[in-house]
Design goal:
Blueprint lengths: L1 E3 L5 H14 L10 H9 L6 E6 L6 E12 L4 E11 L8 H16 L4 E2 L7 H9 L15 H8 L2
């Protein structure tokens, strides 16, 4: 049901990224290309990792998780940052999302990483409930900040 992403999966992962962005009402913000995704996952210095959830009957990809390593200076270990987790609507409820998260947890434990973390939109109640049911807790005292666009360009030019 869950396997490591292959180069041949890039087109379907990219299509599902667009589906996820559409669900989050932000498809207009997706400017990435399949080439960029391929290079991030399979280039000379891959910094992104991927898992594919397959339909048990057809073997077709129905979901994915993309992740990369972060580091905890307090714990002295790496962790996994889950950038995206998505299961196509027609396959939801079949355990694919849970299987993807459990595989990430297995990888973290096997490699001695101290955490798996991600962000979720505050209006996405189905996902929040799903994550809490697995034992995940919100980091209520932390606020995510981001430099991007013109602000990033200006800061980088200083």
């Amino acid at each position: 049901m869950i396997r490591t992403a292959l180069p041949s999966d890039v087109p379907v992962i990219h299509a599902m990224i667009r589906e996820l962005a559409d669900y989050e009402k932000a498809v207009h913000e997706v400017v990435s290309t399949e080439r960029q995704l391929h290079d991030a996952l399979f280039g000379d210095s891959p910094a992104l990792y991927g898992l594919i959830a397959e339909d048990d009957t057809t073997g077709e990809p129905v979901g994915f998780a993309l992740w990369f390593l972060n580091y905890s200076t307090w714990r002295g270990t790496h962790g996994i940052y889950l950038e995206d987790l998505y299961v196509r609507p027609t396959s939801r409820g079949g355990g694919h999302g849970k299987a993807l998260l459990l595989e990430l947890a297995r990888i973290a434990v096997e490699r001695g990483y101290s955490r798996v973390e991600w962000s979720v939109l505050d209006w996405n109640r189905p996902s929040i409930d799903f994550y809490k049911a697995l034992g995940a807790v919100p980091m209520d005292e932390w606020t995510v900040y981001r430099l991007t666009g013109d602000a990033l360009t200006a800061a980088g030019a200083r």
